[in-house]
Amino acid sequence: MSEFSKLSEVADVIDSLHKTPKYADVGRPMVRCTDVKYGRLDLSKTFKVDDEVFAEFSRRYTPKHEDIIITRVGSYGITAIVDDTDFCLGQNTSVIVPKINPRYLYLALNSPYVKNQIEFSVVGSTQKTLSLKAINNLDIPRFDSDIEDKIAEIIGDLDDKIELNRQTNQTLEQIAQAIFKSWFVDFEPVKAKIAAKQNGQNPELAAMCAISGKTEEQLKDLIKEADAHGSANVAGGTTLRATLQQLKTTAALFPDALVESELGEIPEGWDVVSINEHIDILNGFAFKSKDYSGQGTFVLRTKNFNADRIVKRLNDDVFLPVEFLTSHKKFICEPYDYHLIMVGASIGNRGLIYPQLLPALRNQNMWCFRSKSDSYIKQVFVKHVLDSIVERSMGLASGSAREFFRKGDFGNQKICSGSISIQKAFSDLVLPIMEQQSNLDSEQDNISEIRDALLPKLLSGELEINNAA
Question: 267, 190 in Cβ contact below 8 A?
């Protein structure tokens, strides 16, 4: 490492307004501390403010691409790079406007060297605060500009891959949710059959279109192609004929009529049931920290869940002696259990437990939803049923989500369940998507470990840039 510069020498630091805004149901994004996560700044879940509030909070700062947002209060020292510039800064955040390579400065701010400085700089006993003065006084490791550019490129490429995986996972999640909504909420295959019957068209073909997302002409072309080529292989290792046959079989599972129910119109032959009839809601256990150890059986805690519905192992995970698997067997997690955080700051966070996380014991402040049917297929269906209910519950117009998340209230929620055959068809279609999500998440963890090991060595000079290229 050749030298250091104070952050104030390589960037301008601009603070946000120190006041609580009035939020609006619709409007423009305001970035709060909770919106700032490592990586590109994500505006998708921000609170909104009207134009007047937006203008007031924008007077000090107009966002620019690759500025750096930093949190100052509570969860302090967390940074994100500005991508989309349509936002204003909320309280307890500040912005760092780089005068050097923005990606290099961002990486330096997230290095153990600077993170340690931040830890020593915060003040306050109840709520830790990182002052503007402390931010400006941070020592930033410096190299020649070409070396800094190269470090930014090397680590930035890893970060970009992590971000690509994250976005791909989000897209996969949206695809799975869209399929569930089409089949079990909007009943699109059923409605397609009804409309086709009324118009003197082929109900089966109409349902196949609704399930596949293809037009009638596109499907007919595929059928002609399958007839012409027989069982010739297509992408994915399956045959076009087999793919179309599976689509036809799935379409046949849907009825061609709707009937009245307590939930409104539902497909003929489908049942309205409560969650409690098909799903066990299991508590966690308040394990004592004095029993924790550095090895043994993994303890699943609320902090292992994130807003992206991913359950992750962390650097500060805790463990219990293996004998707890016998003494507390009621709290053992099983493959594909679905968990929901129902209290605290992370209320509503949830995720599926994949086999690679096991064995694990379930801690307090979460519920485990487990199908009464001993089948992972049922668990895939359980996950998507619960996702739809939680989304609806978190958006209640009156009352709080905390009040709503009582086991009795949740268990009495009514759902429309199709036949076991339809649930299985859905699970067979969606499980590969979920497994791909799990694989991408594991790849993210591996890349993150490489990045976290490489960055401090590059910034300390221990690893020369020519050797890293």
Answer: yes
